[in-house]
Amino acid sequence: MTTHLRTSQRLLDGCTLFIGGEWKNGMETFQRFDPSSLSQCTGVYAMSTEEMVADAYKYAKTAQENWAAFTAQQRSEVLRKASDILEEHLETATRQLTADMGKAIRDARGEVLRSIAILRYYSGDALQPSGDVYPSADNSTFLLTVEEPLGVICAITPWNFPFAIPTWKIAPALVYGNSVVWKPAEAASGSAVLLAEVFEAAGLPSGVLNLITGSGSRLSKALTGNEALAAITFTGSGGVGNRIRQSVADRNIKIQLELGGKNPAIVLADADLEDASLQVLRGAMYSTGQRCTATSRVYVERAVSEDFTQKIIDKVNALIVGDPYIETTEVGPLGSPEQLKSVNQFLALAKSEGVTILANASAPDSDCFFPPMVITDVSAKSRLVTDEIFGPILVLQVVENFQEAVSHANNTEFGLSSSLFTRDLTTAMKFIKLTQSGVVHVNRETAGVEPHVPFGGLKGSSSLNREQGTAAREFFTTTKTVYIRST
Ligand code: NAP
Ligand code: MG
């Protein structure tokens, strides 16, 4: 049976708010344009008002009480159906993702497949053991814990993973009995409409998932100040994350923030240089460097620095950068004109600081395209080394040894992901202890995470509550401790 989705019609009509089970228009609209072809309008979207956000919370609150009374089997079944429907629409979803933010089509498809896997994981997890039984000091007491949903969750998501990040927040929130008010990034709103339609078609009751399209800064107060709000799950920049944290600081709101990164890779003299250069290239340049876990700095031991540098130069210069809808394209454009402007400012800074540009891929000189590049001779204090660029610019530095590399790698306010390339197990074990990041890779690129294990950063990259895997169950539920005494 094919499920009919109306995403393309909604994006023509600007009917993109999904509140209380109904699709609605707004008084105002905003448009988005294809970053690989800026003359193409990819969608018209309703700009939500604060009143509409308040409505969404009202519906979410009532709907949550009914949804929590569903059995785990029933909730699991809705997610399983959602995964099947998304799979049925894999190609449409993939093209929508690319139209939203320019991700190369094969990576976009990989991301939608990941969303399908996430839905299936949480569909299965719904039926896993819940709560624990403990021995009691009193033999006539049965002592146990039960998990309960939190209530209404606000999910605020970024544009760089339009399907995967919303799915890894919304799927667990729903399956453990919560309802959701979801504000996707403006630049990922088309994918968001499609995903909300998938949940609707899967039979999710009205009001359990509400989609708010519109500006994050304009709706901030309405999103974070509603009294029905029980928890916020946010992924995005540190600046916005910290503002959200402050806005709920005097309330008892559970909060999960996954923020930026400035992820280092270390290449030691004993590494497999061919493999290391390929991993570093992928980590730094794929998805146009716009992954929170992207490799942004590489520290190479002097003994192999010439060999490694040549290998990475050759690989960067050979990258296929261009039309993201072509299957062989490796790197698409940056996500939006705003993103291009921001990365161009870092390039201007690099030029003004007189850094050396080692490699520079060829890229179309139009729309939001930007040539992937490797730079060196950069001061450790430069913003190129300290700030998240969120684009395909890799800073390469030569170091004398492992200790120096680790000290540079850790010298950052961020702590999301890090990589070490070596064949020496003892050094690898040392690195796992010393590196200040929530995700650690040995002989793998910094980017890329599996959906069934906890994920999150240290230091300025995270509020330290992990996402995904069993960590998601912990975040999206609370515990009641129950003492039952037989008389
Ligand atoms: P962003 O500018 O912080 O925006 C994230 C979300 O917050 C968007 O939906 C945005 O809406 C909304 N928003 C903006 N201002 C707000 C406010 N004052 N109150 C409430 N919501 C507000 O981040 P982005 O540019 O979309 O994404 C890139 C950033 O995300 C990078 O820093 C990247 O490292 C980080 N990221 C982290 C992870 C991780 O897991 N650690 C994963 C992916 C991305 P609008 O779009 O409408 O402004
Ligand atoms: Mg932004």
TrEMBL record:
The keyword Oxidoreductase applies. Keywords: Oxidoreductase. Residues 28-482 form the Aldehyde dehydrogenase domain. The keyword Nucleotide-binding does not apply. GO terms for molecular function: oxidoreductase activity, acting on the aldehyde or oxo group of donors, NAD or NADP as acceptor. InterPro entries: Ald_DH/histidinol_DH (IPR016161), Ald_DH_C (IPR016163), Ald_DH_CS_GLU (IPR029510), Ald_DH_N (IPR016162), Aldehyde_DH_dom (IPR015590). Belongs to the aldehyde dehydrogenase family. This is Unannotated protein. It holds the Pfam family Aldedh. It comes from freshwater metagenome. Coiled coil: none annotated.
